[in-house]
Write a structure and sequence with these properties.
The complex is a heterodimer of chains A (254) and B (335). By secondary structure, chain A is mainly alpha-helical. Chain A has one domain. Chain A is built from eight helices and no strands. In chain A, helix 3 crosses helix 6. Chain A is elongated, with a radius of gyration of 21 Å. In chain B, helix 3 crosses helix 4, helix 3 packs parallel to helix 5 and helix 4 packs across helix 5. Chain B contains twelve helices and ten strands. The radius of gyration of chain B is 21 Å and the shape is globular. Chain B is of the alpha/beta class and 335 residues long. In chain B, 38% of the residues lie in helices and 18% in strands. The two termini of chain B are 34 Å apart. Classes of the chains: A mainly alpha (254), B alpha/beta (335). The interface between A and B is medium-sized, with 13 and 22 residues.
């Protein structure tokens, strides 16, 4: 049981290393990359925007309520924006990339594997990792980074709307507290998180898709596993990255 | 001319269950070989091991000096370009039309212009008789057509080694006969080394130069077709006659008690088998270069073969004595 889990973990890392190497191997599958990029973007943009508005609102309302009780209402803007940009946005991106794009990638690769298409490809001297997995992983990474920007903006606007219009905060206080507490490093780490999450989601989806157990049922199980494993990994990695960031980057307000 | 495939001491198992042990054979360059075996004896696993898709635990598969089992991945990928593998159900890419499927290896491995690719692909499509279906998706055609499309894709890079996994499964007898003829014609045209894995007796009787059989986790025998076709080995005899009496049971093999009971019951002996002449290339095609090579090779080893096989070989070659390359052995003509 434990050995089995370790073996799977090892294979996952081996695939990650293989993909990292294959990224630089010519010829680059540009067409496949564009197609996958377009596909991943098309299944994630709308849900991401729709999720980020209420998410920004929830954070704004919660933080607004707390700061009001503490008498620090003028800092609502800074606090809620930081929460959205640093935490909520990468996680929303991660959920959508893993849930919408990762599951589709896993199902696609899995059904190709059980139909022996990938074997056929290898027999023809074409590496499935280079031909199929690399463009998909790069596409999820690129979409994650761009999507993160979108979610940050939409979430911030949502928070602003709810704080200023509904809770009666003042626009000036919102913006000035924002510029007092936030710094560019917050945005950078947010994008870095999105990049890493995109990579993990792509690798896990590809790994489960390349190794389904048994027939069509196995593909269904693989998709299920890929989403669950990705979520577990992403929340863990998020925790580590947040902890490291808070340690090494000095807070602006302090 | 095709490339010789040397298999040495190959052993493969899945977990604790061994598939076959210590398989050693040589596929002679440019000749057609058939690997027989009851269902579930690891014939497909053997094919996939030859091409490096599965990794046997022991042994080597040497092709042009590259070991498909242990060599670095990069060399294996390079060597695979010499192969054409026809999968059991075609293994076509479901999202591409037949044309794109067949053009895939060309687009990946060559820098040919699209017009050139179109010419080559249409030529192959015509060879396998799929003209008019090139725009269809694999899901829209019958299993037999998928198989032929898979063969066309395997042929498009002019492979030196062609492996066919059960080319007959799912085909009717007439189509199987056409396919047998197609394989022989191909061999005449491109002189590739071919290995066909099957349990179809018609293909086994008419197509190959060499035959082998896998049973009970071992290679029972491999050699010139006459050796297997005249073999008195119980497994081989039972298989070639398609009888129930013998060591092969419904599930892989019978135990000793059942066999003894069978022997006691005294099943009627099978009538002696007749060796059917091998297929010739279609009229208009060049003769197979492998025929002359095989003749030289077989005649050199004829004295070490069992007597039945020896006389069968002499008979075959005496029948077309007009062939120019006949080199009669000095010792012991006749039996």
């Amino acid at each position: 049981m434990i050995i089995g889990a370790l073996r799977q973990t090892g294979r996952l890392f081996a695939l990650a290393a293989e993909v990292s190497r294959a990224v630089f191997r010519r010829p680059f599958q540009f067409r496949e990359f564009v197609e996958q990029f377009w596909f991943v973007a098309s299944v994630t943009i709308l849900p991401a925007a729709l999720v980020s508005i209420p998410f920004g609102a929830v954070i704004a309302l919660q933080v607004g309520s707390l700061t009001q009780q503490l008498g620090a209402q003028s800092f609502t803007g800074g606090a809620s924006v930081l929460a959205v940009v640093q935490q909520a946005s990468p996680l929303i991106v991660a959920l959508l990339i893993a849930g919408a794009a990762g599951s589709a990638i896993c199902a696609d690769l899995g059904s190709r594997t059980i139909r022996e298409e990938l074997d056929a490809m290898e027999v023809m001297g074409v590496s499935p990792v280079q031909r199929l997995v690399v463009p998909r992983v790069l596409a999820t990474m690129a979409v994650a980074v761009l999507l993160n920007g979108l979610v940050s903006v939409v979430g911030t606007l949502g928070g602003y709307f709810f704080n200023v219009i509904l809770q009666g905060g003042t626009p000036g206080a919102y913006l000035s507290s924002f510029s007092a507490l936030a710094q560019p490093a917050d945005l950078y780490v947010s994008e870095l998180k999105a990049l890493v999450f995109g990579f993990i989601a792509g690798i896990v989806a590809a790994h489960r898709g390349l190794n389904p157990r048994g027939g069509p049922k196995g593909v269904g199980d693989a998709v299920n596993q890929s989403v669950v494993i990705t979520f577990l990994l992403l929340f863990f990695v998020n925790m580590v990255m947040t902890a490291v960031y808070l340690q090494i980057v000095p807070p602006k307000g302090g | 001319m095709g490339i010789e495939v040397v298999v040495e001491g190959l052993t493969k198992s899945f977990g604790r269950q061994s598939v076959w042990r210590d398989v050693t054979l040589t596929l002679p360059a440019g000749e057609v070989s058939v690997m027989l075996g009851p269902s579930g004896t690891g014939k497909t696993v053997f094919l996939k091991s030859l091409i490096g898709l599965l990794k046997p635990e022991k042994g080597r598969v040497l092709i042009n000096g590259v070991d498909m089992v242990n060599s670095p991945e990069r060399e294996i990928y390079e060597t695979r370009k010499l192969f054409g593998l026809m999968f059991q159900d075609g293994a076509l890419f479901g999202s591409m039309s037949l044309f794109d499927n067949i053009a895939f290896p060309l687009r990946e491995h060559t820098r040919k212009k699209e017009s050139e690719i179109r010419r080559i692909v249409m030529e192959r499509i015509e060879v396998v008789g799929l003209l008019g279906a090139e725009g269809k998706l694999p899901g829209e055609i019958s299993g037999g057509m998928r198989k032929r499309a898979g063969l066309a894709r395997a042929l498009v890079l002019d492979p030196q080694i062609i492996l066919c996994d059960e080319p007959d499964s799912g085909l009717d007898p007439v189509r199987t006969a056409y396919l047998s003829q197609l394989l022989i014609d191909l061999n005449a045209q491109i002189d590739a080394t071919m290995l066909i894995v099957t349990h179809n007796l018609d293909i086994a009787a008419t197509v190959p130069d060499n035959m082998g059989m896998l049973f009970r986790r071992e290679l029972v025998t491999f050699g010139p077709r006459e050796v297997l076709l005249t073999s008195e080995e119980p497994v081989v005899a039972q298989f070639l006659d398609g009888r129930r009496e013998g060591p092969i049971g419904m599930s892989e093999e019978k135990d000793a008690a059942t066999l003894a009971a069978e022997a006691g019951a005294g099943a009627a002996p099978a009538p002696p088998r007749r060796i059917v002449p091998q297929l010739e290339p279609s009229p208009g095609l060049p003769p197979r270069a492998a025929v002359a090579r095989r003749r030289r090779r077989v005649m050199a080893m004829v004295d070490q073969l069992p007597p039945a096989a020896r006389s069968a070989i002499r008979e075959t070659y005496a029948a077309d004595a007009a062939a120019p390359t006949l080199t009669a052995p000095s010792a012991g003509s006749g039996t």
